[in-house]
Amino acid sequence: MDSSIIDGNGQWRIFESLSDLAISDVTLTAFTGIAIRAFTTEAAFNNVEIDGQNAVGNADSILGGIMAIANVEVDNVYIHSFSGDGLANGMSGLNFHVINGANSTVSVSNTTISNFSSNDSRVLGLALNNGLLDGSLTPGTIDLTMKNTTISNMNT
Q1: Is 30 left (phi over 0), alpha (psi -120 to 50) or beta?
Q2: CA atoms within 13 A on the CB side of 87
Q3: DSSP-assigned beta bridge partners for residue 37
Q4: Largest Cα–Cα distance in the chain?
Q5: How far apart are CA 55 and CA 124, in angstroms?
Q6: Closest C-alpha among 34, 35, 42 to residue 18
Q7: What digits encode the pLDDT tens for the residues 10-38?
Q8: What does pTM read for this prediction?
Q9: Which three-class secondary structure string do you get for 45-84?
Q10: Is there a contact between 80 and 48 (Cβ–Cβ < 8 Å)?
């Protein structure tokens, strides 16, 4: 991808937002935990590469590409090359949450999630979660639309 590169040096989260978020034309590398956390109402990611090759997780963490609690649009995103063991919450490429009975609309298109591996941790290309982050288990709705999306080489 023709974009700017942001390197977390293996010790930093790269993006974490509590307000609306739009990220485009960027490659993210060598971060800790999740490359992008969007705890917001609206989030959009376009022309983003998340290279997990030098990403770092820890025993009580999750390792992955994008985690969002929002109405989310993901287009032309490439999430790849994650490896790790001993991750209590596993690894995921895209991880969407809905809490407090909310409704969320998620669109994923022209996206590839590939080459995740672990000997002992859960590996998910796409995760949809309801009520887990706030502990309420309050029913909500995630309306997911996927087009031209590939999830491959997910190994555990």
Answers
A1: left
A2: 27
A3: 16, 67
A4: 42
A5: 16
A6: 42
A7: 666 788 888 999 999 999 999 988 999 99
A8: 0.91
A9: EEEEEEECCCCECCCCCCEEEEEEEEEEEEEEEEEEEEEC
A10: no
